[in-house]
Automatic annotation (TrEMBL):
<keyword id="KW-0805">Transcription regulation</keyword>
<dbReference type="GO" id="GO:0000156">
    <property type="term" value="F:phosphorelay response regulator activity"/>
</dbReference>
<dbReference type="GO" id="GO:0000976">
    <property type="term" value="F:transcription cis-regulatory region binding"/>
</dbReference>
<dbReference type="InterPro" id="IPR016032">
    <property type="entry name" value="Sig_transdc_resp-reg_C-effctor"/>
</dbReference>
<keyword id="KW-0238">DNA-binding</keyword>
<dbReference type="InterPro" id="IPR001867">
    <property type="entry name" value="OmpR/PhoB-type_DNA-bd"/>
</dbReference>
<keyword id="KW-0597">Phosphoprotein</keyword>
<protein>
    <submittedName>
        <fullName>DNA-binding response regulator</fullName>
    </submittedName>
</protein>
<dbReference type="InterPro" id="IPR036388">
    <property type="entry name" value="WH-like_DNA-bd_sf"/>
</dbReference>
<dbReference type="Pfam" id="PF00072">
    <property type="entry name" value="Response_reg"/>
</dbReference>
<dbReference type="Pfam" id="PF00486">
    <property type="entry name" value="Trans_reg_C"/>
</dbReference>
<dbReference type="InterPro" id="IPR039420">
    <property type="entry name" value="WalR-like"/>
</dbReference>
<feature type="DNA-binding region" description="OmpR/PhoB-type">
    <location>
        <begin position="138"/>
        <end position="232"/>
    </location>
</feature>
<feature type="domain" description="Response regulatory">
    <location>
        <begin position="6"/>
        <end position="120"/>
    </location>
</feature>
<dbReference type="GO" id="GO:0032993">
    <property type="term" value="C:protein-DNA complex"/>
</dbReference>
<keyword id="KW-0804">Transcription</keyword>
<keyword id="KW-0902">Two-component regulatory system</keyword>
């Protein structure tokens, strides 16, 4: 893209905030840094929105979970959680609420830069998905009661739009391209999270759980002891 990706970074640790902003900007990203969740509430309704949010969970006024909920009411923009709480339950809660990645403190700033870059690339640098350009609603595919547009990154049931996170949509598309094949968790992790992902494969099960909740009639089967399969349509 011609202009830098815009990142909103929210963390109440001032020193860490400045350090991460410096690293992200050195990597060519445009960064706006905020030291509290309350500072960004008024920005959620503005026309200009970031390409990526990076949110701390433990903030004194509005925590990252609540901020994520508010963002997801308006946008499916990618979100990375950073937190001093390195517990599986915190990661799962974040993923269930709609985050796309989770990084536990302490971490190397360079790792956050790499994860941010890869998430931005997977989200925006695909054929037919141009940053800042109107989305084209083409190539609709019918799967049961659902209409899916890979180019438009949209899923509908009848006239109702189904709100999916970035990774939920990416898994739907991945399954569409591999109908009838049994896919193990490692294959799904590599495709959706990237080869450098170092988290648990429980993230796959959580992602499938969220899709089944939002799209209960989507033909996604569990291959016990192995992974998942979308039946051919």
């Amino acid at each position: 893209m011609n202009t830098p990706y815009l990142v909103y970074l929210v963390d109440d640790e001032t020193n860490l905030l400045e350090l991460l902003q410096s690293y992200l900007e050195s990597a060519g990203l445009q960064v706006k840094a905020f030291s509290s969740g309350a500072e960004v509430l008024s920005l959620l309704d503005e026309d200009t929105q970031p390409h990526l949010w990076i949110l701390d969970i433990m903030m004194p006024d509005i925590d990252g979970y609540e901020l994520l909920r508010l963002i997801r009411q308006k946008s499916n923009v990618p979100i990375i959680f950073i937190s001093a709480r390195d517990q599986d339950v915190d990661k799962i809660i974040g993923l269930e609420l709609g985050s796309d990645d989770y990084l536990a403190k302490p971490f190397l700033p360079r790792e956050l830069v790499i994860r941010a870059q890869k998430l931005l690339q997977r989200t925006y640098e695909k054929p037919g998905v141009a940053v800042g350009a109107p989305q084209t609603f083409q190539d609709w595919v019918t799967v049961g009661p659902y209409m899916i547009s890979e180019k438009g990154r949209q899923v509908k049931e009848g006239d109702e739009l189904i709100e999916l996170t970035t990774k939920e949509f990416e898994l739907i598309v991945y399954l569409l391209h591999n109908q009838g094949l049994a896919l193990n968790r490692e294959q799904i992790l590599t495709s959706i999270w990237g080869e450098d992902y170092i988290g648990s494969d429980r993230a796959v099960d959580d992602l499938v759980k969220r899709i089944r909740k939002k799209m209960p009639k989507f033909p996604l089967e569990t291959v016990y002891g192995f992974g998942y399969r979308m039946t051919r349509v």
